[in-house]
């Protein structure tokens, strides 16, 4: 028989050897999922004996993580904003910094007014569903070129009981869309093509290339999105776009060239200008 603490130590060491950045945290998550235990069990009953079935299940999950498969994909879920989302290899795993897009969008919408929100490249639905959860009179449209991503977004809307206020469309950016929208948000692909293979294995190997590849300079998606905003936004409507490190000035220039005003950059907790927001006249 194997004790809980012994298996946790084994997994932690395995992940450390594989170069995983957060081996302690990840080992706990895999132990909880594979053995069906809780964090409190690990703390208060560390010498609990586990069955062979439990040990085998944890070891199978640990082997996947040692290959640098993201924990979110292994477990099929990821926390974001105030809820948990289903995720898969078909969608970008939501990051904490993307919550800044949500906050920027919420700042532009009155709390008690009807609004129409568009999310371009909706992925798991993280941004759009977070906004809808905070604005009960808002309705949303999520667009993505990936049908598999839309299936995950639809599942999340159902899980969060928001399905009656959101529609989904399989399309390239603004193709076939009609406004007006009160708010447009997006976390588009912004990694320069040549940089993708140099990213962490969790990203380069396992995240969908469609959600990462921003073209030669990383700005292709912004060149597609920003010129469409004046057509899609109502007068005074706002937008909030996530950008990569070092891209804020270029994206702000594209926004102003498209006719946006009050364009500003918002910094994330690392001090990086992570979100570009503004309005249309």
């Amino acid at each position: 028989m194997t004790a809980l603490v012994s298996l946790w130590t084994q997994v932690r060491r395995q992940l450390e050897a594989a170069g995983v950045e957060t081996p302690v945290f990840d080992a706990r998550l895999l132990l909880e999922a594979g053995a069906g235990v809780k964090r409190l069990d690990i703390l208060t009953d560390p010498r609990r004996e586990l069955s062979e079935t439990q040990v085998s299940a944890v070891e199978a999950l640990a082997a996947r993580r040692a290959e640098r498969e993201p924990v979110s994909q292994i477990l099929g879920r990821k926390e974001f904003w105030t809820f948990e989302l289903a995720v898969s290899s078909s969608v970008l795993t939501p990051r904490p910094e993307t919550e800044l897009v949500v906050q920027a969008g919420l700042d532009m919408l009155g709390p008690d007014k009807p609004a129409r929100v568009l999310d371009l490249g909706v992925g798991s639905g993280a941004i759009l569903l977070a906004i809808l959860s905070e604005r009960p009179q808002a309705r949303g449209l999520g667009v993505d070129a990936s049908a598999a991503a839309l299936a995950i977004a639809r599942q999340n809307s159902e899980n969060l009981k928001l399905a009656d206020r959101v529609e989904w469309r399989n399309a390239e950016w603004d193709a076939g869309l009609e406004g007006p929208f009160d708010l447009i948000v997006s976390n588009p692909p912004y990694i320069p093509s040549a940089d993708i293979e140099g990213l962490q294995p969790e990203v380069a190997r396992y995240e969908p290339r469609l959600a990462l590849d921003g073209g030669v300079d990383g700005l292709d998606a912004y060149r597609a999105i920003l010129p469409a905003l004046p057509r899609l936004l109502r007068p005074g409507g706002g937008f909030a776009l996530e950008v990569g490190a070092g891209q804020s000035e270029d994206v702000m220039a594209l926004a102003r060239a498209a006719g946006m005003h009050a364009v500003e950059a918002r910094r994330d907790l690392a001090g990086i200008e992570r979100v570009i927001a503004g309005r249309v006249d």
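Residues 68 and 201 are 6 Å apart (CA to CA). The chain has a mean pLDDT of 96.
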